[in-house]
Amino acid sequence: MDITGVVAIISVFGLVPLIVFLVHRHKERQALIERGLDMSHLVGDKKCSTLQSLKYGILLIGLAIGILIGNILDAYTGLNEEVSYFSMIFLFGGLALLIFYTLAKKHKEEVK
């Protein structure tokens, strides 16, 4: 499976908007600093960033498990390579997000 083309497309369509966003954000923050305005609304909430880190961590673990199971299905069953990989990536990625949802819901109930 040659993924050079996929990586090139993701790089172009992923990195260019990211660089534009970061440059724009830097200019915006510089303008706020020069005017002496309050920047507290730009700084994220610690609790929110912890949950975001947890969400992305669980999602990446789910995607990795999906890739592993997709490889196993590709090697030991008659499934098509693309079908085995993509179905398992989406399945375990979705399960990971559901797991995060239940954990975040429990956390929210504990905080109340």
TrEMBL record:
Residues 6-104 form the DUF6249 domain. Keywords: Membrane, Transmembrane, Transmembrane helix. The chain crosses the membrane at residues 6-23, 56-73, 85-104. InterPro entries: DUF6249. This is DUF6249 domain-containing protein. It comes from Labilibaculum antarcticum.
